[in-house]
Amino acid sequence: MHPEWQRIANEFIEATSYRVGELEKGWASRYDFSKRPATYLQYEEVFARIELGKPQFPASVDLWEVLANRRSKRNFLKQPMTLNELNLLLWGTQGITDDMGDYQLRTTPSAGALYPIETYLMINNVEGLEKGLYHLDVQNWCLEGLKREDTSEIAYMLTEEQEVTRRAAVNFVWTAMVDRTKDKYKERAYRYIWWDSGHVAQNLHLVANGLGLGVTTIGHWMDHDMNEYLGIDGTSHLSVLMASVGKIAGGHWLTDRRPE
């Protein structure tokens, strides 16, 4: 590691570390949810709004078997994903499961139930959807079409020519709206948003593997260029993680298995 990078990393860890007795007790529990930054992001100018509705849930699979057989798989087929498969992936990572009044709970945990993570989709091959860049409107549970274009080559370029992104049916790009978490947790927010993105990514792996889809997380992408492509500032709203999903040979091995 370059010495300057090491210095910056060490200073970040030190600046965001706590010691016993230096914080006012109970300060976080007194957070006023009514004054928090907006929890949901919606776009006004879109080329399409795709209502997703409640997904059609397949027969349950064995959680322990999914965990035991979870793998990152990249050999995607040209076969398209269905819209319901995409809906299941989205619900498993961002679906609202309960309304607590001041805030809503989702299928993934979030520090303080603040949910800073947004989901953008670079759609390459999904039945019923035009190729393009989409954003998930969690509150209204619909897809917002932002750019109508072939995103496969764009994903390939922005990940420094990782073939898996060009072959994927969908490339997930997760972003963080930092103020949602920073308003409550201050400097600690920059730790929490990475944890939140990890929860979301892990749920994607579990749901995709349970559906017999291939999925792999992408940690190497050109941040500045991706932020520019998404139209976000890269500071208060920045890209934090990617993942590629697609059909694979021998898919649906869990749901298609017969009792022995």
Automatic annotation (TrEMBL):
GO terms for molecular function: oxidoreductase activity. This is Dehydrogenase. It comes from Brevibacillus formosus. Pfam families: Nitroreductase (PF00881). InterPro entries: Bacteriocin_Proc_Enz, Nitroreductase, Nitroreductase-like, SagB-type_dehydrogenase. NCBIfam families: antibiot_sagB. Residues 68-246 form the Nitroreductase domain. Transmembrane segments: none annotated. The lineage of its organism: Bacteria, Bacillati, Bacillota, Bacilli, Bacillales.
